[in-house]
């Protein structure tokens, strides 16, 4: 599967994102009750923030997933761990579908990490999924993430995990 990326447009893409993030399968995104305006506002804040960015992953020009990345020195994990130079935090969301494609989510996370590691300044990707999200923990392991410890975030108990460029390459044999 080949994906391309484009910056998310908070107003143009809000309806699509709203469908994705409010779907019951996106419960870990914690926007189940969000109104369209809430989604617009949340992504306008990201777009205006120099320490985070949201991209849409496209397949044949059609948006098929959401990718967010952030500087953990300033967002999400401030005070919860000691960031190293080259750390970047990441979230991704594959929307619910009526016709799941085997291997799609793994292809997405692989593409997301490859995109992040394209930047030579990125040495390690940091994630903080909900401790109860066992499906994403298993998926993270397949691309090289190693759990470090549980941390208490304001909105959830999270499993702090890291993936270095070397771990990613060893796990996936993808050139980054």
Shape: globular
Distance between termini?
A: 16 Å
Parts with pLDDT < 50 across at least 5 consecutive residues: none
> What is the strand content?
25-35%
Largest sheet: 7 strands, mixed
Q: Radius of gyration, rounded? A: 15 Å
What is the mean pLDDT?
92
Instruction: Count all strands and give the number.
Output: 7
How many helical stretches?
5
What structural class do you assign from the helix and strand content?
alpha+beta
- H/E element order: EHHEEEHEHEEH
Question: Order of strands across the widest beta sheet?
Answer: 1-2-3-4-5-7-6
Can you give a write-up of this model?
With 176 residues, the protein is of the alpha+beta class. It is 30% helix and 27% strand. It has helices spanning 14-22, 36-47, 104-117, 134-142, 165-172, and strands at 4-7, 52-59, 62-70, 87-93, 124-127, 146-152, 157-164. The chain has a seven-stranded mixed β-sheet, with helices on both faces. Strand 6 and strand 7 form a beta hairpin.
């Amino acid at each position: 599967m080949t994906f391309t990326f484009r910056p998310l447009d908070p107003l143009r893409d809000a309806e699509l994102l709203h469908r994705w993030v409010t779907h019951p399968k996106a419960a870990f995104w914690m926007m189940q009750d969000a109104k369209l305006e809430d989604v617009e506002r949340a992504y306008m804040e990201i777009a205006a923030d120099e320490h985070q960015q949201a991209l849409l992953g496209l397949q044949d020009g059609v948006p098929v997933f959401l990718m967010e990345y952030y500087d953990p020195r300033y967002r999400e994990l401030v005070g919860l761990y000691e960031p190293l130079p080259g750390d970047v935090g990441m979230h991704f969301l594959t929307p619910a579908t009526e016709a799941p494609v085997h291997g799609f989510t793994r292809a997405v996370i692989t593409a997301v990490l490859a995109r992040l590691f394209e930047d030579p300044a990125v040495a390690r990707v940091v994630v903080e999924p909900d401790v109860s999200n066992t499906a994403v923990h298993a998926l993270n392991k397949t691309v090289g993430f190693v759990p470090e410890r549980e941390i208490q975030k304001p909105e959830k108990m999270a499993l702090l995990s890291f993936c270095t460029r070397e771990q990613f390459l060893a796990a996936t044999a993808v050139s980054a």
